[in-house]
From TrEMBL:
Organism: Pandion haliaetus
Organism lineage: Eukaryota, Metazoa, Chordata, Craniata, Vertebrata
The protein, known as: procollagen-proline 3-dioxygenase
Keyword S-adenosyl-L-methionine in record: no
GO function terms (MF aspect): iron ion binding; L-ascorbic acid binding; procollagen-proline 3-dioxygenase activity
Key words of the record: Coiled coil, Dioxygenase, Endoplasmic reticulum, Glycoprotein, Iron, Metal-binding, Oxidoreductase, Repeat, Signal, TPR repeat, Vitamin C
InterPro entries named in the record: Leprecan_dom (IPR056585), Oxoglu/Fe-dep_dioxygenase_dom (IPR005123), P3H (IPR039575), Pro_4_hyd_alph (IPR006620), Pro_4_hyd_alph_FE2OG_OXY (IPR044862), TPR-like_helical_dom_sf (IPR011990)
Domain Fe2OG dioxygenase span(s) in chain numbering: 386-500
A GO BP annotation: collagen metabolic process
EC number: 1.14.11.7
PROSITE patterns found in the cross-reference section: FE2OG_OXY
The family this protein is said to belong to: Belongs to the leprecan family.
Region spans: Disordered: 248-271, 519-577
Comp. bias (Basic and acidic residues): 519-538, 560-577
Amino acid sequence: QLKKLDRAVSAAHTFFVANPQHLQMREDIEKYRRMSGVKSDNFRDLEATPHWEAYEAGVQHYNADEYLQAAARLEESLTEALAALEECRALCEGPWEDEDEEEEEMQPGLYEAIAAHYIQVLKCRQQCVLEIAKKPGRVSATEDFIPSHLDLLQFAYDQVGNQALAAECAASYLLFYPMDEPMLEKMKEYRTELGEDTAVTAREIIQHYVQRSLMEKKLIYYAVEHLGGTFNDPDLWTPDELIPENLKEKHREDQEKQKQETLDVEEREKRGPLPFEGIAVTMDSRQMNGTQRVVFDRVLTESECKDLLRLTKAAGEAGDGYRARRSPHTPHERFEGLTVLKAVQLAQNGDVDWRDAKLFLQASEKSRKIIESYFTPGKKLHFSFTHLVCRTAIDEEQEGRMDLSHPVHADNCLLDPEGQECWREPPAYVYRDYSGILYLNDDFQGGGLFFTEMDTVTVTAEVHPKCGRLVAFSSGKENLHGVWAVSRGRRCAIALWYTHSQEHAEQERVKVEELMEQRAVEQDRPDGEEHQGTDRSSRSSSEPPLPNSGARPTSRRHKPGSDRTQHPKELRARDEF
C-alpha cells in the first residue's frame, strides 16, 4: 500500500518460501511477477542464511550447466556452512538441560553427572550438521549436506577443466565414503592426468571436520553402550566399525528405513496381474521415462463416461470442497468437484440418478483394484480421497495466459524445486502412497498430464486424456507432475488417492456404505438394484459390485515453457489433477 514494491515482493517471497501451501500468497507472487516495476532481484528470501542462499544459487547454475558460476557459489556455500556449523557448536556449551528422563538415570553420582553433561554437549554438536542443512522454514534436513557440496564441486571443476581442484574435492569426498566406486574411478583418472608425482590430498578443513566428528561419535557411542541413553546419528557416512556390536542392529534398522524411502526399482517394478479382462497397459514406467508410472486404457466404456459426465453437471456450486472458491490453482479456469458422499446425497434427494451415483462408486473401486493389483499385489490399498472434478476454460480469460491448470507438485511432499528437494512433512499429505486419474472425455484443448524432473521444467512424459484412460503412479517425489492449461472446453476426470494406512482411509466411504445399505433396505433389494430409471444395459459386464472400500475404522525432454513463474511449491489445497 505504500508503493514500496521491492520490499513488498521480498516480504511476500520470504513468507511463501516457508509457507508454499498458502494460495493467496502464491497469487500475490504471480501478480508481482507480471508487474513492470518489479525486478527478479526483488524476489529475495529475507530469512535466508548465507550458506543456503549461496547453495541454492550454486545448484541453479549447476543444473543450467553453468559450472564456473556453480563452483564459485558452492565454494561460498561450503565456507559459510562450515562457519555456521562452528557457531552452532559453540551454542551447545552451557548448563545441563534436564530433558531426558532416561539420561537422568545416568547420573547417580558426580562423575556420572559430569559424563552425562559432556555427552549432552557432544550430541548437541553432532546435531548441528542437521541444523545447517535445514532450509529456513523447513523441518527436514537435506541429507549429506557437506559431502554433497564436494560431490557437486568435483563435477563442476571437472567440467571446466580444473583437474587439480576436482581431484582435491574427490579426495575430500572419499573421506566420507572411502568405498564409493565412481569417485574412486575418477581419482584414478585424475592421478593419471596430473601425474603420479603430483600429490592429491583432501582439503585440510574437511580432514579436520571428519576427524573431529568421528572422535565425538566414538565417545558418544561408548557412553550409550556403557552408561545408557540413545543417540540418533545424523550422518549416513558413519563407518560401521565405529558402532558397538550391541548397537549395530538398531543402526542397521535406521539405515534400512532410510534406504526404504528410496525406490528399489527392480523390486518395485515387479507387477501383478490385472483383475479385469479387456484392460490394456498402454505405457509402463520404462516408456514413461520414470518409475512407478503406468497408463491403462479401456477401464470405462464410452457409455459409462457419458453417464459420469452427466453426473458432473449436478455438482452444483463450483469449487465444491474449496469453500466455494473458483479454481484454487488458476484464475483462468472454473473448477467443479463432486465427492462420493455428495453424489450419494444428491441421489438421495432425487437430484441425480441413483445409477449414476453408483457408477461413480464402481468406477473408483474398479480403479483401486487395478492399481492395487498392478503395484502392490497382496498389500491392501485404501481410498484416501476421491473427487470427480471438472476444469472449464473461461473464454475471456485465455488471452496471454502463461500459467498451468495445476502447477507441478508431488502428492505426499512439499516441493522445493530450487533446493531440489521434496519435504515429506506436514502440511503435505504424507500418508498418500499411490495416485490415479481416470479420464472421462477428450473434447477440450490442453489439460494433459505431464511428469517432470526435480527442476519442475524438464518434462519426462506426457499423457493425453481420453475416455476410460487411467493413469496411476506412486505419490512421492519420483513422480512430480502437473496439468497443462485447459484453454478451451471442459475437462473431467475422477481424481483418486490411496494409502496403505487404514487409519487414513477415506471416512466418507463409511457413510456412503451406510446410505447405500439404508437404501437397499428401503427398496427391499439387498443387492442394491434400482427399481426405476433409465436402462443402462450397455455398461461393461466387467463392472465390480458395489465396493467395500475398506475405509471402516478397524534423458531430458522438452520444457513446459520458459516462464519460470510457473514454478510453485506444493499447494495445500486438494491436489486435483
